[in-house]
Amino acid sequence: MLLTHFDESDRARMSDVGEKAVTKRIAVARGRIVMQPSTLSLLDGSGKKGNVLNTATVAGILAAKRTSEVIPMCHPIATEHVALDFTTLPDGVEITATVSCSAKTGVEMEALYAVTVAGLTIYDMLKSADKTMRLEAVRLLRKTGGKSGAVINEEETR
Amino acid sequence: MLLTHFDESDRARMSDVGEKAVTKRIAVARGRIVMQPSTLSLLDGSGKKGNVLNTATVAGILAAKRTSEVIPMCHPIATEHVALDFTTLPDGVEITATVSCSAKTGVEMEALYAVTVAGLTIYDMLKSADKTMRLEAVRLLRKTGGKSGAVINEEETR
Amino acid sequence: MLLTHFDESDRARMSDVGEKAVTKRIAVARGRIVMQPSTLSLLDGSGKKGNVLNTATVAGILAAKRTSEVIPMCHPIATEHVALDFTTLPDGVEITATVSCSAKTGVEMEALYAVTVAGLTIYDMLKSADKTMRLEAVRLLRKTGGKSGAVINEEETR
Amino acid sequence: MLLTHFDESDRARMSDVGEKAVTKRIAVARGRIVMQPSTLSLLDGSGKKGNVLNTATVAGILAAKRTSEVIPMCHPIATEHVALDFTTLPDGVEITATVSCSAKTGVEMEALYAVTVAGLTIYDMLKSADKTMRLEAVRLLRKTGGKSGAVINEEETR
Amino acid sequence: MLLTHFDESDRARMSDVGEKAVTKRIAVARGRIVMQPSTLSLLDGSGKKGNVLNTATVAGILAAKRTSEVIPMCHPIATEHVALDFTTLPDGVEITATVSCSAKTGVEMEALYAVTVAGLTIYDMLKSADKTMRLEAVRLLRKTGGKSGAVINEEETR
Amino acid sequence: MLLTHFDESDRARMSDVGEKAVTKRIAVARGRIVMQPSTLSLLDGSGKKGNVLNTATVAGILAAKRTSEVIPMCHPIATEHVALDFTTLPDGVEITATVSCSAKTGVEMEALYAVTVAGLTIYDMLKSADKTMRLEAVRLLRKTGGKSGAVINEEETR
């Protein structure tokens, strides 16, 4: 099976997307930061929760734009839209990132990277209270656009 | 409980570490990238595996050095040592990052961030073969140094 | 009135420009760095003035290219032209930045950001002589291109 | 008078701070983003205001940490504390940045740069409603630490 | 003769490429890192050589993507393909970088910059054994695309 | 012989400098950009030469500060002084970079990287007139500080 970021000698390269068509591409990724319920409750009834989630949003959006600086073989992409959504769980926060572009390659890595950075930002802002948080289940929900067609791993019920 | 990256009005800030002592600080974080066994087997018997893991190593080391650019409230840290270790699992690769410094604050976020970037780099290099990979269980194993003492969440048996 | 970088729940996001047309867009911004006349005269009759203004030019051009890394909701833009112009005032230096691109969104922030970085660069190079400099009146002069039409706040008489 | 970022031939260089003492250094800078009162009122009675100011805070803190990447002759500084404060004015928002470090040179440029980036971030988030905003009066309020002693340009009455 | 990055007053600017056509552009650059044969032999018969060259590949690819952050007048380019090739010489390693894009300006600087960063990465990984390495003969082999036509300075015989 | 950026399994890592002493460290590197004499003469009798060399100075200084972002195994270093010097040759420009710090490891890579970026910046600003320029002889002249003692490869006669 083809691993596109390798040449025929098994050396790493940035795959050539020059001949691919510019199409609208969207990717949605999700993960969650799991913590003790008492940690989560520290955010109740105050402005902290809004500020934590907004800080994670900003960090995730900034990260999505710089994905190709960090993930070595990623192509530079001019993202046209980035949004982060959060759902409070009993034991943590679920993070969903939606990224879109008009480009020759997709934004799967941008969405995944935004989720991890948003998750680690939440971790960082709560870590003085909890040393046992975990980032879990970071995965692609779906992506559309491009020759190989849509991938729907999971329905977004929320 | 104190959330150090907030002021008394619940606004975000970078906490003041000016009065803390410079001490040797080490953090070890771990996570894993989970994939279909057939994806993992694409790396067998060729130079690909070495190049994938080296690429993930380089990405993780570079990331650790730039953590404070990405995680908004992280203090800039001059890391003195960064190493990535990989263990092949039946269904993926376990990633361990060890980071150390001599500073007024620790490198917990640097180690966690290195794990996520190394994991996403592996994901990126294999994603043309598998759309269902997941980054799982990213957490702190242990950290030492600093006034609050050591945190040992998990023994490193490997 | 619409604030495009917010969703319907008042959360920040990078607005979706995917459906906008790619058009030629130009923005011109201006500001000034105000200082004591004696500070300004330090630049007379030597190569210093040329080097200060060239350094500010380089800093401003580099900054314009990286605007979307710094201003969280800015879209990445491939700038096609960036120029900085300087006019010596009796009590400082006026800085004008012109930026253009062919894109789905404009370069207003790029021009404004280039002015501020050029101004702070001049400040930095003169600050050992003057602690009272001020960056003043950083604003958009005009922008063209895009569906909402031209904005002309001020004529450029120089 | 000495301009420290020049050599004896009037060429630019990063001044040598190797022989200076490591001391605690604090700088406070201030500026304001001026807008139409109707623009400011768009932030009333909703979560927008909190998110705008938090986004500006995050942008300003991230910027302070990267000042030496942007202002060419600035020395790299490991900031130990960064905080942004905002005061609503009748026609805009006043922004104050406080930065501290333990280093051989100060953080004046870091504080000024944080103010400009926070101001431009507010501008960016409101610019779809107002094309006439201006960044004004960006200046140093005070700095302490270092051989040349404290500079107090202005009392912080708030 | 025209130096495009200057205006009519000899001031530096980023040249205006707005009116140029988007075409496929390829650039190939080459250089070599020269060292003592005994240094080179340290890489024999072990995994070191693969890891050194892969690390140089990753560094060169990441660098190519960020050229416009580093070379002041370079236009931002979304690279569509980057590959590094290495040939072992009796006294060093020859490095060839191939970069392509579809853009209004070429990727000559991207290819040259990738060669220098890959070369310095090899230097860095071997420098504890040899203080006399040199980076030599970094030049453009050829470039194609754009109005001024192809430049073929040298045939790639390997 | 020890290659410090490898572990005992030949995997790349950032070597551990935690136990090394903080000492004053200086490195001087040199290289040259070689061009046709007619290219060089384009800089005569105008402000262009000053602006080209100042632009190369700014690019080199900015690069030195970011070396550890680019060269994967380099330790982050807070540079205390960076200066670029240029000597006009009959067929090009010789570039010398001097970098110093007080740190646990040296600034050899910073000086070499500053030379290459300054050289490529000159190349970029002249490349519309000459496609055959070459970056040559980038090497360490000397470094001092640290346990292994001074390395003097070459006297700086200018």
Task: Note the main attributes of this structure.
homohexamer, 158 residues, alpha+beta, 5-stranded antiparallel beta sheet, 4 helices, 29% helix
Give the secondary structure arrangement, pairings included.
The structure is a homohexamer of 158-residue chains.
Chain A: E1 23-34, H1 37-41, H2 48-65, H3 67-70, E2 81-89, E3 92-103, H4 108-126, E4 134-144, E5 151-152
Antiparallel strand pairs in A: 1-3, 1-4, 2-3, 4-5
Describe it for me?
Chains A, B, C, D, E, F: InterPro entries: MoaC (IPR023045), MoaC_bact/euk (IPR047594), MoaC_sf (IPR036522), MoCo_biosynth_MoaA/MoaC (IPR050105), Mopterin_CF_biosynth-C_dom (IPR002820). Chains A, B, C, D, E, F: Pfam families: MoaC (PF01967). Chains A, B, C, D, E, F: It catalyses: (8S)-3',8-cyclo-7,8-dihydroguanosine 5'-triphosphate = cyclic pyranopterin phosphate + diphosphate. Six copies of one chain form a homohexamer. By secondary structure, chain A is an alpha+beta fold. Chain A is built from four helices and five strands, in the order βαααββαββ. Chain A has a five-stranded antiparallel beta sheet with strand order 2-3-1-4-5, with helices on one face. In chain A, α2 (48-65) runs antiparallel to α4. The model of chain A has no long low-confidence stretch (mean pLDDT 94). Chains in contact: A-B, A-C, A-D, A-E, B-D, B-E, B-F, C-D, C-E, C-F, D-F, E-F.
